[in-house]
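To: structure desk
From: M.T.
Subject: fold request, one chain
Message: Could you run this one when you get a chance? Sequence is below, nothing fancy, just the single chain.
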Amino acid sequence: MIAELRVYPRDSRHDPAPARSTIATQLAIKAGATSVMEPADQFYGNRCCGVKELAGNQWLLATHIEDVQVAELKRRAAEFFKKQGKAA
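Reply: Done. Structure tokens follow.
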């Protein structure tokens, strides 16, 4: 059975917020995981990346980087899905 886990790495005094999920991904890859999603800022205010570990589980690592107001979220979602060729 394959599972997907969503994880928000804990705060670190030494790492800026957007870097936390990227650093966690680099550590996972060093430990043998493979990247399934490169780090990228998402329209809903998170920076996300993903790895698949040796047992086959996929981990989505995310860092909250901004609070997005509802109106702005709707605008961004419409723009994102338009680029994807889908209705929001």
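Reply (cont.): The chain has one domain: 4-84. Let me know if you need anything else for the meeting.
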